[in-house]
Write a structure and sequence with these properties.
The protein is mostly beta strands and 459 residues long. Helices cover 5% and strands 52% of the residues. The chain contains four helices and 26 strands. The protein has one domain. Strand 20 and strand 21 form a beta hairpin. The strands form five sheets. The protein has an 18-stranded antiparallel barrel. The longest helix has 8 residues.
């Protein structure tokens, strides 16, 4: 008998006061929750996961999950995860479609309390991409007395959505330096780098992008493109390269933990060189080890993306062309015009809203406050509260208002799950899931929404 098998089947219905589900009803759901409430009165899904199990000197794991949406008799299947993985000591390899692990989670079923899931460039807001991921778990650097550790990931993926540059490829390189300063205090410094490259543009003047092995090595090393690529790639780097830089402090108390992190988005060398300060997502989190408390986790985030290394990217100074490095234009790109989106959802920070009627991100200059609370009502029914207040200014190239004034937006959610029946010594259970959602402001349609469902799970 497998000791880490989870099978979950769910059925839910949704309703909204304005036909579209509010922001937090669809954001950070792996891209499988449709936006239109009127279009999916009933949705269902199934999840099958096997955690790591021994296989000789290796361990294996696998998972399959998918949702179905009934659009007035037109049944649509939305694949979520389909993967298999192997682990050998500190190395693991996953093949297929797999969601990225989220940080700041009070309850696994309800997901992260953070607006970004702890990752400004890859939030869990969009659907999973097929590909492979090779990961190195934290390994101690020799002769450092257990103070210095390294971890990382390397992967390549394929886009399947109908985007401006179709069949674009995606590469990822990530590494963290970990300093265990004391038994209680840890400092983490990380770089998470992505590159969209290859594919075929809808613009006939751009056409098919080179995707040879030589181009791949230019992408992973951040080098300039050759003459067969667009002029922008020749002047800068090949493809749409972006990512996040992470600074994080963790403190371990007696029965509790706390963390502060500054997660910085970047689009080019100016951002990587911190010219875009103070841009980033600043997260302060406190959590008790006892997750059965009425209140077990508290999170506050401040999102700031107003700088973007300044309002000027290049200029002619003393008859010389000078790249100043501003107007970073987060999650947008001149060639890969769908930007950092996948199936219409922002891959990174979901508060950077995508455009509704054209490719790319509509508003990537904002200030936002986000609060997340989690725990268990009556010490047995998990819940989470999400409250976000944001002011949006559009982009440098397309501001919402010429006078640089912004538009305000509030989005809130209260979600939970009520276990009400268990069988076979807790191996089989039924639970009721629910959610109340609201949007109020000028960036998204105003209104309220609700969701209720039932989940059958086998452990």
């Amino acid at each position: 008998m497998l000791d880490s098998l989870l099978i979950s089947v769910w059925l839910l219905g949704s309703i909204s006061s304005f036909g579209e589900m509010p922001f937090w009803a669809q954001a950070n759901q792996g891209g499988v929750m449709p936006a239109t409430a009127a279009g999916f009165p009933v949705a269902s899904g199934v999840c099958f996961q096997v955690g790591y199990q021994p296989l000789g000197q290796l361990d294996y794991r696998a998972g399959v999950s998918a949702g179905t949406v009934d659009h007035f008799g037109d049944l649509q299947v939305l694949p979520d995860e389909f993967y298999a993985g192997l682990r050998w000591k500190l190395l693991s390899l996953d093949l297929g479609m797999k969601r990225r692990e989220q940080a700041f989670v009070a309850d696994r079923q309800l997901g992260s309390l953070s607006a970004t899931g702890g990752h400004v460039a890859w939030s869990g807001n969009a659907r999973s991409m097929p590909g492979y991921t090779l990961e190195l778990q934290p390994v101690q650097v020799p002769y450092t007395g257990g103070i210095f550790w390294l971890e990382g990931a390397y992967g390549d993926y394929w886009t399947l959505d109908d985007r401006y540059v179709r069949r674009a490829l995606l590469h990822r390189t990530q590494f963290n330096f970990i300093f265990k300063i004391t038994s209680r205090l840890t400092f983490r410094l990380g770089l998470d780098h992505y590159a969209l490259w290859g594919g075929v543009s809808r613009d006939p003047a751009v056409g098919r992008q080179p995707a040879s092995l030589a181009d791949y090595f230019r992408v992973i090393t951040g080098r300039h493109a050759t003459g067969s690529n667009p002029a922008q790639d020749q002047a800068y780097v090949q493809g749409n390269q972006l990512g996040g830089e992470l600074w994080r402090l963790d403190w371990r108390g007696d029965g509790w933990k706390a963390a502060f992190q500054h997660d910085i988005p970047y689009e080019d060398g100016s951002g990587m060189g911190f010219q875009n300060f103070p841009d980033g997502v600043n997260t302060l989190w406190f959590g008790w080890d006892d997750k059965d408390r009425w209140l077990s986790d508290i999170l506050y985030e401040y999102h700031h993306t107003m700088s973007q290394s300044g309002p000027v990217h290049d200029a002619v100074v003393a008859d010389q062309y000078v790249i100043i490095g501003g107007r970073d234009n987060y999650f947008n790109h001149a060639v890969y015009r769908s930007g950092w989106t996948y199936f219409g959802r922002t891959i990174g920070d979901p508060l950077l809203y995508p455009s509704r009627n054209q490719p790319g991100i509509r508003s990537n200059r904002l200030r936002a406050h986000h609060i997340g609370l989690g725990g268990k009502l009556f010490r047995f029914a998990p819940y989470k509260l999400m409250l976000s207040w944001s002011t949006h200014y559009g982009t440098y190239d397309a501001p919402l208002h010429e006078d640089e004034s912004g538009e305000s937006q509030f989005s809130g959610a209260f979600q939970g799950e009520i276990p009400f029946a268990t069988f076979l010594d807790g191996g089989v259970g039924l639970s009721l899931s629910y959610g109340l959602f609201a949007d109020w402001g000028n960036m998204l349609p105003k209104g309220f929404g609700g969701r209720v469902g039932i989940r059958l799970y086998f452990l």
